Amino acid sequence: MPLIELHGLTKQYPRVRALDSLDLTLDAGVIGLVGANGAGKSTLLKILLGLLPATEGSARVLDMDVHIQGREIRNLVGYMPEHDCLPPDLSATEFVTHLGEISGLPRPAARERTAETLRHVGLFEERYREMGSYSTGMKQRVKLAQAIVHDPRLIFLDEPTNGLDPAGREEMLDLVRRTGQEFGIAVLMSSHLLGEIERVCDWLMVIDEGKLKKSGAVAEFTQTLGALEVEVEGDAATLVKALRERGFDARGGGTLAYVALQEAEPYDAIRDCLVEMEMGLVRLEQRRQSLEDIFRPEDSPTND
Amino acid sequence: MTERAAGNIYDLGYRRYEGRRLGRWDAALSLYVHGLRAAFGLGRRTRSKIFPIGLALLAGLPALAYLMGAAFFEINVSDVIKAEDYFSTNIFFPQVALMLFVAAVGPELLGRDQRHSILSLYFSRSLSRLDYAASRYAAMATAILALTLIPQATLFLGNALVVDNFGGYFRDEWKQIGPIIGSSLLISVFFAAIGMVISAQSARRTFATIGVIAPFIFLPVLSGVLISSLDNLAGRLGVFLNPFFVIDGFTYWFFNATPDLSEEHPMMRAAFSGGWYFLFAIVITLVGIVLLLRHYRRKSL
């Protein structure tokens, strides 16, 4: 059973088309949804939750139609919004327990699972403190806790690392990865940072201006598209130019050039170019290409 | 903190929830109970309790004062304060306490969820938008009911206890119970409808509170001007603009009592029978509820 199926999904606002005929099938796992701000990520999540109606097309989540079975879907999913959503004068325990009850847990179960969930996300000692005194990282953890307190089958995380410092970002990504892999809850996580998706996700979908640009396994993107890293004595830009003239996909600057590994292997061409330019070769090695390399510069969802 | 937390995770492991899952009505009931507690600041800081509980005490003060008078000075309080007068403009300040309570609690129940963007968390669960609005409204109406019914019940039971013959008092006065409950209920749902519709319009507490109080101040003034300046039906209809007169009107109607008012009193000049006030309150309540539900159905997140 597919986790999510989209058929011609379109959302038209009065002035802008937020989603444009999305067709896609996604299976369980940790799925990354990448796009620049305003690409339509949040709109897609809200449609999948049944919070927004689609203008055209259909969407199914956990084999249920979002339009007809929105309530059933919402019983089985969790949602962590991008924006701040925590009342400052309540403790994490009170708040998560309350939302656990609203999600259908009987009160004793809600209390028990709140304690467990807060511990899982790394908040335990602080759980009785008012949330107004929490750091951004702690608030993000509470937001994740309320999304999984009722043990959903799928969670939607909208920019879970937003506003976090690098250390907090790492911790949150680790939590997302564990949620997907250890807790066994499927995750659909939106982000405008490819590096994050690469770290935690199995599957990647890229949307831009409401259109689906790419969808596939992260491993597929990063492994099959290898690149050579060439370190030279001199200006790598001239090497890049020479390789491009010979039809190779090369880029770089300073002393480093990157050359995509294509069907026609570039080894001989690199050697010839270096000889022609009388440039010393320091190092040549195959580099596992990152998503950032693949999508830069033409897709460039990492600019912001 | 993270290392310790990670240690805990590996020690305990994540457990799936295999227990019972409740439905939509239980979620709505849970939100209702949560709202009712929030209305009185229960489970919140002391500061959150001061206003609602203070106003509840203020609304009950006449009942308590007269009862204490009765206990210490052996006055038969039923002679001094009648049930139908308790929330009338004759005593006035229980009405004002009710108005201030609505103005304080409405924004707390609705504005808070908007201010802190909690609505998307509620609506991403099985609770629908209408369930949310209905639960919040019901919590507000019940909270007001506590302010209207408890003083009346205190007065009634107190009267029964002060007289020597408890059974006799009950036999004579039991017919008061229906009107007490009926009028208290209608005051509650009527004020809750007005207060919640206005409170829903702003996430800012100050604006919402001022917005709730404003019609209770300006409408009576407008009502007074209309009645005194126009000697026709339009002028007479002005009496319905004053929510306090509306309460007076249907309360006397419930008790089948004649208000002890001078000929110059606007209600006497308007000369509408109590049933009209009752109907008006019902219509305004229903319109208020529909507007509140519509507001949340259309609200963008």
Describe the structure.
- The complex is a heterodimer of chains A (304) and B (301).
- With 304 residues, chain A is an alpha/beta fold.
- Chain A contains 11 helices and 14 strands.
- In chain A, the strands form 3 sheets. In chain A, strands 6-7-8-3-9-10 form a 6-stranded mixed β-sheet, sandwiched between helices. In chain A, strands 2-1-4-5 form a 4-stranded antiparallel β-sheet, covered by helices on one side. In chain A, strands 12-13-11-14 form a 4-stranded antiparallel β-sheet, covered by helices on one side.
- In chain A, helix 3 (92-102) packs across helix 4 and helix 4 (107-120) packs across helix 5.
- The longest helix of chain A has 16 residues, at 166-181.
- The two termini of chain A are 36 Å apart.
- Chain B is mainly α.
- Chain B has one domain (24-298).
- In chain B, 74% of the residues lie in helices and 0% in strands.
- The two termini of chain B are 34 Å apart.
- The A-B interface holds A 46, 49, 51-52, 71, 74-75, 77-79, 81, 83-90, 94, 98-99, 101-107, 109, 113, 116, 119-125, 146, 150-151, 171, 178, 182-184 and B 1-2, 5-6, 8-9, 12, 14-17, 19-24, 26-27, 30-31, 34, 43-45, 48, 112, 116-118, 120-128, 301.
